[in-house]
Structure formats: structure tokens, C-alpha cells
């Protein structure tokens, strides 16, 4: 634990989520991690999938949705976002993800008990201890899942916007429509011949 005015309960925190799209449940979990951890790592799962019914949004655009909302923490080096491909191996998932984090992880934040199983029942190899904290989604008022948000969007029901963090609605709408979230950045990337990270 650090001392002084910027003291945190934990040195390193980790969360995993698919962000299809980034919504208020994700925001609540990341906010909690940022409030308790000096350095935070976010693994965006199913990073190898895009354009499918379950994973329509590319990894790059999912990362941009989070970075746009947490631009200060991202720019200050407190929030690191990285891709995690599907390995379809629950007993080895926690080891696979923690091996991508350059520091020992003190605490893993999960959105449901189901999400916590990989870390609670199958802790990372070479870890004597890792704390697991679950922020249950049903504690949120009017919470819907990313699947429900996509369904509302696809039906043309504007209530999906109620579950997207303030300031991210317009770029989320562009992403759900299959467009680049930032038109000016898209122009620059086209000029440069590739995605800017």
C-alpha cells in the first residue's frame, strides 16, 4: 500500500470484460478498481472476435470506447488496456490473463459470481493468493446486459442510451452502426495508412 494522499488499498488490480459495448455496469466496476488500486489493468476478452452476433465490435473500437471515457486515467498511466483472446480453457484462464500483466495482481474484479469462478476456483499458477471481489450487476438500478443493449439498439429502441456512460453515447452509436467512433481520427488513419494507437 502506498502512503500519502494518493494511497490505495492495492497496488495492482485486474478486470476482464468483453465490452460489447462499454456500459454503466462496466463503468461501475472500473470506477471501483480505480478507486482502490494504484495501477489498473483491463483485459478485453474475445479480442480475436468481431463481426459476430455475440461479438460485433472490433477489439480496437472496444478499447477506444473505454479510453474515451477514462482518458485521464489512461493518459496518466493508471489504466492499461490489453487484448485477451479466447482460449476456451476455464482452469487456465486466470493464469493466461495474469501472465499478460507485468506486475503481480493483488485483486481481481468480477461483474458476476460466474465471472469470478476462473479466479476463485482456479487461481493463477505461481500465485499464493489473489483476492477476488464481485460487484453483482443486479445491485444496479435498471441494469441491462450488453446483449440487451444491442437488442434494444437493433430494434430501434432509444432506451439503450440510458445504459451507456455519459459522454459515450454518440461514439457508441457510431460503433454499433459499424462506423469508426471518431470520424476525424478515421480520416487521419486513412491518410497515415493504418490505425493509430
Tell me the span between the first and last alpha carbons: 31 Å
CATH class division: Alpha Beta
CATH architecture: 3-Layer(aba) Sandwich
CATH superfamily: HUPs
According to DSSP, the number of beta strands is 5
Number of helices: 8
Walk me through the structure.
The chain has a single domain (10-189), classed as 3-Layer(aba) Sandwich (Rossmann fold). It contains eight helices and five strands. The chain has helices at residues 24-36, 59-69, 71-75, 90-98, 113-120, 146-154, 169-176, 183-192, and strands at 10-17, 37-45, 79-84, 107-110, 131-134. The longest helix is centred in the first third of the chain and has 13 residues, at 24-36.
Task: Produce the secondary structure layout.
Elements: E1 10-17, H1 24-36, E2 37-45, H2 59-69, H3 71-75, E3 79-84, H4 90-98, E4 107-110, H5 113-120, E5 131-134, H6 146-154, H7 169-176, H8 183-192
Parallel strand pairs: 1-2, 1-4, 2-3, 4-5
Task: Fill in the keyword field for this structure.
five-stranded parallel sheet; alpha/beta; Rossmann fold; 8 helices; 37% helix; 197 residues; globular
Quick recap:
With 197 residues, this protein is α/β, with parallel strands linked by helices. It has helices at 24-36, 59-69, 71-75, 90-98, 113-120, 146-154, 169-176, 183-192, and strands spanning 10-17, 37-45, 79-84, 107-110, 131-134.
Amino acid at each position: 500500500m502506498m502512503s500519502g494522499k494518493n494511497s490505495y488499498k492495492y497496488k495492482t488490480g485486474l478486470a476482464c470484460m468483453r465490452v460489447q459495448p462499454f456500459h454503466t455496469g462496466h463503468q461501475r466496476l472500473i470506477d471501483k478498481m480505480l478507486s482502490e488500486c494504484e495501477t489498473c489493468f483491463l483485459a478485453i476478452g474475445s479480442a480475436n472476435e468481431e463481426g459476430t452476433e455475440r461479438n460485433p465490435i472490433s477489439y480496437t473500437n472496444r478499447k477506444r470506447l473505454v479510453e474515451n471515457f477514462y482518458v485521464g486515467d489512461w493518459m496518466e498511466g493508471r489504466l492499461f488496456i490489453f487484448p485477451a483472446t479466447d482460449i476456451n480453457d476455464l482452469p487456465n484462464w486466470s493464469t493466461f490473463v495474469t501472465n499478460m500483466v507485468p506486475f503481480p495482481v493483488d485483486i481481481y474484479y468480477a461483474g458476476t459470481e460466474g465471472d469470478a469462478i476462473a479466479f476463485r476456483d482456479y487461481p493463477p499458477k505461481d500465485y499464493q493468493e489473489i483476492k477476488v471481489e464481485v460487484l453483482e450487476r443486479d445491485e444496479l438500478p435498471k441494469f441491462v446486459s450488453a446483449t440487451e443493449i444491442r437488442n434494444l439498439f437493433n430494434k430501434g429502441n432509444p432506451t439503450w442510451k440510458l445504459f451507456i456512460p455519459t459522454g459515450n453515447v454518440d461514439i457508441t452509436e457510431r460503433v454499433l452502426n459499424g462506423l469508426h467512433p471518431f470520424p476525424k481520427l478515421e480520416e487521419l488513419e486513412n491518410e497515415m495508412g493504418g490505425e493509430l494507437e
